[in-house]
Amino acid sequence: MDIKPSEQIKKHIQNLWNKYLLAEITNDIMLNEISSGLYVENPDMQWIESLNKQNPLKYGIVSIGFSDTVDDAIENLYNYPEEFLPYSELTNLIGPEEMYEKIMSGIISQTEICDEKNITDNPYNKHIHIYKKIKNALLLKTHETLPFEFFQSYNNSFNTENPFLHIKTGFFKEKISYPVLLENNKVWMSIVMSEILSMQKEIEKAHGNVITYGLGLGYYTFMVSEKENVDTVTVVEMNEEVIRLFKEQMLPYFPNKDKIRIIKEDAFTYIKSQEDNMYNFAFADFWKGVEDGVFLYLKLLPSTQKLKNTEFDFWIERCFMEYYFRPVLIKMLYEKAFKKNINIYEPSKSIQKLKKDFEHFIKKQNIIISSEKDVDTLISDAKIKKIIYKFAASINYRHEFKS
């Protein structure tokens, strides 16, 4: 990768870098609070209704829920700048009050008051009746989301104005119940807003003969089997207990169960023997989350390239770009433009290695940045996806890969 320096390009990269730093602070605050089970108990509705805001309920609940954490983050950034580099670079540009407003504005923009009907009226939840069931290490049960409890939602589109602010959250005004599958007491899959939204486009795109790698609670299988333009749904799942639980607890309630065929097989093994033209659409979803998923995704990608007549999609593929690959690209652009060496802390050794591998790969690519448009193109979803596919197919990386 090479940058043909100009003041315009440097200014554009600096602006994007500042957006990245602010977005990462905001993303981190939101993700940590959601993970901690943040909820607002008995909010003062009279005060909220008195707020002179476009959406007083959202503004009020977010302010109550996040203000203390945002205050703490700002105090740390301004009082201990050396410990919070490179994010504390922003303290040289804006004061604490403006920083507070920008972070809170980011959180509010990424928060949605969700309609309970998204869960209660979802076709899967209306058809499937979950009873507590234990199968060895697996536990099938229902969970509840409290009123005004923040949960992670899903970022379904690329925002050109702020390409790095990607964590989305939401809350319900009422208590909501939803099915969840646990393995060793850890959530494997649940039919919540993030799951529903993260599969929405892939459900819409499914047609003809569909294959999905990964079963879980059978949400994707159910939703595509309901489509008139879907003829068959083949599910590849290696966990015998998951298959057994699905056949006992969910499949009997599927109106179009005759469309569904389950194959007990490892996805990597099955796809190697998979012939082109067998399926029109394929959806891979056999990872639990972002960190384990990115490695399984990269491992699977090369095997999909030979199946030219099958359209492939991958669960939370956008998250892989947002969490790992786009941050590497903006860091490299900034380092190259300003001849700096930036160190960004990464707690996971495996992710740290992944980012380094990706950075080394990018350095060898014939990428020329000679305009602001080139910068924007490089960090776009479409371009990053193409680069990732080449990265996954690179011989050295495949040989070094360990899931």
Supply the key terms.
14 strands, five-stranded parallel sheet, SAM-dependent_MTases_sf, four-stranded antiparallel sheet, alpha/beta, 16% strand, 403 residues
Question: Could you walk me through the main structural features you see in this protein, from its secondary elements to its overall organization?
Answer:
The chain is α/β, with parallel strands linked by helices and 403 residues long. Among the domains are: 2-113, no CATH class; 116-189, no CATH class. Helices cover 49% and strands 16% of the residues. The chain has 16 helices and 14 strands. The chain has helices at 7-35, 45-49, 56-79, 96-109, 117-120, 123-127, 193-205, 219-225, 240-249, 267-273, 290-304, 317-338, 349-364, 372-378, 381-393, 395-400, and strands spanning 2-3, 111-113, 133-135, 138-145, 151-152, 169-171, 176-183, 186-190, 208-213, 230-237, 260-264, 281-284, 311-314, 368-369. A five-stranded parallel β-sheet has the order 11-10-9-12-13. The chain is globular, with a radius of gyration of 23 Å. It starts with a strand and ends with a helix.
